[in-house]
Design brief:
Blueprint lengths: L3 H14 L70 E6 L3 H17 L4 E6 L4 H11 L5 E4 L1 H6 L10 H7 L8 H6 L1 E2 L2 E2 L1 E8 L1 E5 H6 L10 H11 L9 E5 L3 H10 L5 E2 L2 E2 L4 H15 L3 E3 L8 H6 L3 E6 L3 H6 L10 E4 L11 E10 L6 H11 L2 H7 L17 H4 L1 H8 L4 E3 H4 L6 H18 L4 H17 L1
Parallel strand pairs: 1-2, 1-3, 8-11, 8-12, 14-15
Antiparallel strand pairs: 3-14, 4-5, 6-14, 7-12, 7-13, 9-10
Helix pairs in contact: 9-10, 18-19
Length: about 475
């Protein structure tokens, strides 16, 4: 049975020492998960005044956690997998306080289906890729783990993850049940090495009060020209107290989406093409927000990321993902009274809808002692039953296509906009040269092109040309 005492101690210690992590996409390069400050013991165990666990009263048992929905995929049954009775599974993943609780509850549900299996959950929030690489090299890797693009590129592509296809067949699920760009990341040579657990897209968040004051209807913002006009209308004041219409972030994981909309890929085969005319035009458009005084870099506003600038009312709009939702809802950030809406990224004239998608998945160690139990846990944590619990948290959107029709989305307009972007999304891990070198390519474009462009040190054409030459060098290595 799931060891609540061991988990409780780990979670209590981590809750006391974990720092506030930067929200995904907020000054970072992205990822599906969002973070907030871990506060308090999330295990549900009773403690005395000094934090020591109090033994349960005689006859007390762990509370039952309801299992609602399919236990594998959108309609599968995890109990059809011949799990090894007596297995002990070590599961590791980066996780903030809310995510930790979701994992805990998911593991408790799994324990009800497989009471003979013990799952030990270990959050790792520091140097995750480095830790996993070292543990796989040393032969001490966990049985089940969170698999992001970097882990997939450095570990999964080297044959160190367990193929999940047999377990998927036993449980009655197919890869096609998951959003296509997400599941594609985790497939190689016709095998599936992880299952996406959720995703986040980029959309435009709009301060409704500032929009009303500027005479702007957020729903009417559909084109680049509309967006620029809205930013102009919502820019007010001068000097230190000026509020800007748009928050700017010098990151290709923002403006690359607008290159796609303008018909310009970033990488084409083994060549950088983001410096072609349509890509340059997209950057000309975005730098005009700064030169025209209707947009400002979050760093120049004294903020750590655009979500903070938006929440602090320094800007009326910000291009972010769903990770901003729990940030704004956290009383510690002072934005709980901010009325806002979300709209899809506007498109240029004759352009096409496009956005970035960010995701993480759950996979298993190819050398686990308990492959059936490990595969079952990976499938269960990404199942309908567990993703339904994720939806109201606001952290991310479900990766199962079927859950886009969940009743929650008929009542929450912002979440509806977010989940509907799945069909228009591009995944950085698969469109920026592959997950192994994606990070180097992003850093090169940001440092050698976008930062000089927004600082006014180079024109978009000059900066993108210089960065393209360096990226071509990375692609040829």
């Amino acid at each position: 049975m799931f060891q609540r005492k061991r988990l409780s101690i780990i979670m209590l210690l981590l809750a006391m020492i974990l720092p506030i992590l930067a929200a995904c996409g907020g000054g970072d390069t992205g990822g599906a998960d969002t973070t907030d400050e871990a506060t308090g013991d999330t295990s549900g165990e009773a403690t005395d005044a000094e934090g020591t666990e109090v033994p349960p009263e005689s006859g007390d048992t762990a509370p039952t956690v309801d299992i609602e929905g399919a236990t594998a995929g959108s309609a599968g049954d995890i109990t059809q997998i011949p799990v090894e009775d007596g297995a002990t599974i070590r599961f590791v993943a980066p996780a903030n306080a809310t995510e930790q609780q979701l994992y805990i509850e998911g593991i408790e549900r799994f324990g009800q289906l497989f009471p003979g299996v013990t799952v030990d959950f270990e959050p790792i929030n520091d140097q995750y890729l480095t830790r996993m690489t070292a543990e796989f090299t040393a032969g001490s890797a966990p049985d089940v783990l969170l698999v992001d693009g970097e882990v997939m590129g450095n570990i999964g592509y080297n044959g160190l993850l367990l193929p999940l296809d047999e377990a998927m067949s036993q449980a009655g699920i197919e890869a096609s049940e998951y959003v296509d760009p997400l599941i594609d990341l985790y497939q190689q040579d016709n095998q599936t090495y992880a299952i996406p657990k959720d995703f986040n897209p980029l959309v435009v968040f709009v301060n409704n009060e500032m929009a009303e004051a500027g005479g702007v209807d957020p729903a009417s913002i559909q084109t680049w020209d509309d967006l620029k006009a809205a930013a102009e209308a919502m820019t007010e004041g001068e000097g230190p107290g000026k509020t800007f219409g748009m928050c700017l972030n010098p990151d290709i994981l923002r403006y690359g989406a607008f290159m796609f909309q303008n018909g310009n890929p970033i990488i084409d085969g083994d060549q950088a093409v983001f410096n072609q005319p349509e890509g340059v035009a997209a950057m000309d458009y975005w730098v005009s927000y700064k030169t025209d005084g209707v947009g400002e870099l979050f760093s120049n506003l004294g903020r750590g990321w655009c979500g903070e600038a938006f929440g602090g009312r320094s800007t009326a709009m910000a291009i972010e993902g769903g990770w901003i939702v729990p940030f704004l809802a956290d009383p510690a950030n002072g934005a709980t009274d901010l009325p806002y809406s979300a709209i899809p990224l506007p498109i240029p004239e004759n352009g096409e809808q496009a956005t970035w998608l960010f995701t993480n998945g759950i996979g298993a160690n190819a050398n686990t002692e308990f492959p059936h139990a490990a595969a079952a846990l990976a499938l269960f944590l990404t199942s309908d039953a567990n993703q339904k619990a994720l939806i109201p948290s606001g952290l991310a959107q479900p990766s199962l296509k079927s859950l886009a029709e969940d009743p929650y989305y008929t009542e929450n307009e912002v979440a509806k906009v977010l989940v509907d972007q799945a069909e228009f999304g591009r995944l950085a891990d698969t469109t920026l040269g592959g997950p192994v070198i994606k990070g180097d390519i992003i850093n090169t474009i940001n440092q050698d092109a976008l930062e000089p462009i927004f600082l006014g040190a180079q024109t978009p054409q000059e900066a993108l040309d210089a960065a393209a030459e360096k990226v071509n060098g990375l692609l040829s290595e």
